[in-house]
Amino acid sequence: MALFSSDPKVQAVMAAYQARADAERGAFDDPNRHRDELLLPVGPATASFLGTLVRGAQARTILEIGTSYGYSTVWLAEAARATGGKVISLELHARKVDYAKEQLAKAGLTDYVEFRIGDALKSLEALPGPFEVVLLDLWKDLYVRCFDLFYPKLAPGGIVVADNMLFPEASRPDANLYRARARAAAGISSVLLPIGSGIEVSRFR
To answer: What is the pLDDT of residues 113-134, one digit of tens each?
Structure first.
């Protein structure tokens, strides 16, 4: 697997994440396995796209909605280091944030991420913005409600990436509702890209 970073510390962390993801593959459908125990990463293709996007936009204010165990957080933090930016990452579960912090420390990226632990909707209400890049990757039934909270806080030219638009198939009804909402918003142009599990990339005028 090709890694975007040339930093050996970041490469080592991402390789460990990938090994965990490979080991957990197929466990999502295990009725004895709680889904919050699983890494459920965006995957290297989407993560690499995100890193390139942040660098290309020279984004300094990056919002991640859904830290999980920090896979995409590391990629975003690596890009934020290159742009002189900062990632604000929202996550409900403190234990997941603790895991993510450990990986960021190993990668030497601790200074580029600020975590907000708690309900994502409440965190979004409190955050002032503006946001130049947003990654939306939490439970799909919350996508529309999250969008309605961060949309007024997008910076001019702000870009939103929403994951899991195509897979898993069970999430498609919520994904379709999100895509319809984003595309109906004033000033938004949006496109579905078949990268990873499918991403909707939206840009605010």
So the answer is: 999 999 999 999 999 999 999 9
38, 96 Cβ separation under 8 angstroms: no
What does the pLDDT look like over 52-81, one tens digit per residue?
A: 999 999 999 999 999 999 999 999 999 999
What Å distances lie between residue 39 and 36, 126, 169, CA to CA? Answer: 8, 27, 18
Nearest by Cα to 150 from 164, 131, 176: 131
Tally Cβ neighbours within 10 Å of residue 85: 21
Phi and psi of 186, rounded to 5°?
-60, 135
Contact 73, 87 (CB under 8 A): yes
Please state whether beta strands 113-117 and 188-193 pair in parallel, antiparallel, or not at all (unpaired): unpaired
Question: Does a cis peptide bond (omega within 30 degrees of 0) precede residue 168?
Answer: yes
CATH of domain 8-204: 3.40.50.150
Helices (H), ranges, the chain: 8-24, 44-57, 71-83, 94-107, 120-126, 143-150, 172-184
The pair of three-digit structure tokens given for residue 111, joined into one six-digit string: 């200074």
Instruction: Answer whether 54's CB lies under 8 Å from 85's CB.
Output: yes
What's the chain's Rg over C-alpha atoms? 16
- Reading the block at residue 146, the tokens are 């999250």
- Evaluate whether 178 touches 147 at the Cβ level (below 8 Å): yes
